[in-house]
């Protein structure tokens, strides 16, 4: 296979973005009357089917593979660009993500028990603002179902069976009281531990009532301590809220360190509504977490503060819509970056262009 230079990778990425935004994206965004959630479900299902057919190789031939491997928290990552949690909750398309140039994919968020999530509609696309608002509520088929699906594909910790690193995001089952959260997370961890290269602990989603209280000092330390004891060799990353104050952020990072976290992910979606473009400013009153371009500045600020306050490695996530956004996170000290909304708006060309960065 011919090795592409960085400039050639970037040119390929620009061409892929142009093809996606001019041809495929308009078609996708009109499917199902433009319903974002139905379109997303269809896309993930189709990619899941492609991932186990020769069509995957066709995609891989068009999209340059992940580059610049790195070791973070003792885990090998074939590339520095990953798929953020929330895109492939149940791992349906897991075999396909490496073909798009991802070095890792964070599946989930999954919970101990399967749950339908919040009432629909619950996902909104704000095209002018390059943003999404969601209040999905951890809709998923359960941690055990994800573990079994990965097992069918031969995924085991460290074996790179799908040609990329597998992270799994864990959340709390909605009906589980907060005082029983430890056992709820532990149940999920036991199910997926053999299949995960790392675990992302989601205690910062704004869409499950009370969940963010698990970020508080002693509560987070106790939760992490219990989970680390359950799987001491499996790195746990804590996903941080962008809505924490500076003091709260410092306290949460300290609690994560005390509990044995091996890394941090900055950030989750935000309840803030700054950065929306008229006439989409009216969406400011829609409940749910905001992702995409309006989150970029805050995510960058959080990464910068966290890197200055801890030696734990940081995955930058939030508002990565362009290669410059990713570069800013790397410059701020993030060792890896994740994309979600940027991938939806720009397609695999964005991944290719970030992989072409000179880091």
Topology:
Layout: H1 6-30, H2 36-50, H3 55-62, E1 70-72, E2 75-77, E3 81-83, E4 104-110, E5 123-126, E6 131-134, H4 143-152, E7 165-170, H5 181-192, E8 198-202, H6 217-230, E9 236-240, H7 246-259, E10 263-266, E11 289-292, H8 296-309, E12 314-317, H9 323-332, E13 336-339, H10 341-346, H11 348-355
Helix pairs in contact: 1-11, 4-5, 5-6, 6-7, 7-8, 8-9, 9-11
Describe what this molecule looks like in 3D.
The protein is an alpha/beta fold and 359 residues long. It has one domain (6-355): Aldolase class I (TIM Barrel), CATH 3.20.20. It has helices at 6-30, 36-50, 55-62, 143-152, 181-192, 217-230, 246-259, 296-309, 323-332, 341-346, 348-355; strands at residues 70-72, 75-77, 81-83, 104-110, 123-126, 131-134, 165-170, 198-202, 236-240, 263-266, 289-292, 314-317, 336-339. The mean pLDDT is 97. Helix content is 38%, strand content 16%. Helix 4 packs parallel to helix 5, helix 5 runs parallel beside helix 6 (217-230) and helix 9 packs across helix 11.
